[in-house]
Amino acid sequence: MTPDDNTIERVTQPGNIELFDRKRRITGVTIQYYYSCHREVWFYTHFFDPEQNTNDMKLGRMLHEKAYKGKGKRSISIGDSVVDLLQNGKTIIISEVVKSSKLIQPKIKQLQYYLWLLRKQGIHAKGLVRVPKERKKITVPYSEEIENEMPRIIQDILRIAGLPIPPEYSPKPYCKNCAYKEFCEA
Q: What CATH number is given to the structural domain containing 74?
């Protein structure tokens, strides 16, 4: 089944509690997982929650709590997603804070998803991926490419979520630090 535009609208609409096939709704995390591992998408949309006590998860929580205090509002909800940091000045800037620039592309796509959601609500914003340990900021502007890409990505996520079993395991260099590692190796 190929989801239509109405399905995409339902699963991304802020405040809409309807679930697609009783699966978890699409969030920024789902988009991030899509760009790193389709197997993670399947686990996440089927309510397999990742191991919360890995060193990477602990470091991420600590970074989220301590980085950029006083720089804006933290943990802002956009529908079912949560943005790490929002600054509201002449231009609205939303930020994701990451521990490393390794695997940065999935985080950029997550931020683009947030920009896309905001744009659907008539809010024009810019995005920043912040890497405090490396003192890096990566600007993520909104583009027409995002506008065209997100519905296609959402359709593919819904396809993955509809699979009866997770996609085949395909080892990647970063699997050893994955919070879903136990599920993949079971």
A: 3.90.320
Is residue 30 very low, low, confident or very high in pLDDT (cuts 50, 70, 90)?
Answer: very high
On whether the pTM is more than 0.85, the answer is no
Cβ-contact 134, 7 below 8 angstroms: no
**Whole-number pLDDT of residue 150:** 94
Whole-number Å distance between alpha carbons of 137 and 85: 13
Number of domains in the chain: 1
DSSP bridge pairs for 97:
130
Closest alpha carbon to 85 in 140, 77, 76, 57: 76
Cα–Cα distance measured from residue 5 to residue 12, given in angstroms and rounded to the nearest whole number = 11
15 pLDDT higher than 50: no
CA 92 to chain CA mean position, Å: 19
Are the CB atoms for 52 and 179 separated by under 8 Å? yes
Residues 6+ apart with CB under 8 A from 60: 99
Question: Which tokens sit at 161?
Answer: 């979520």
